[in-house]
Amino acid sequence: MSAFIPFGNIRETAVRLAQTTPVTDMHTHLYAPEFGELLLWGIDELLTYHYLISESFRWSTEEYDQFWSMTKREQADWIWQKLFIEHSPVSEAASGFITVLHRMGLDVSSRNLDDYRQAFESRTTEQQVDMIMELAKVKKIVMTNDPFDPVERKVWLEGNGKKDDRFYAALRVDGLLNDWPNAVNSLVELGYDVEAEWTERTKQETRRFLAEWIERMDALYLAVSMTGDFQYPAEDHRSRMIDDVMVPVCQQLNIPFALMIGVRRKVNPELRLAGDMSMRSDVSAVEALCRKYPNQKFLITMLARENQHELTVLARKFRNLMIFGCWWFLHIESMVEEMTRFRVELLGTSMIPQHSDCRVFEQLIYKWDHSRTIIGNVIADKYERLHRSGWGVTEDEMKRDFDDLLNRNFWRFLGREAEA
Ligand code: HDL
Ligand code: ZN
Question: Which of 329, 417, 415, 404 is nearest to 23 (CA)?
Answer without folding.
Answer: 404
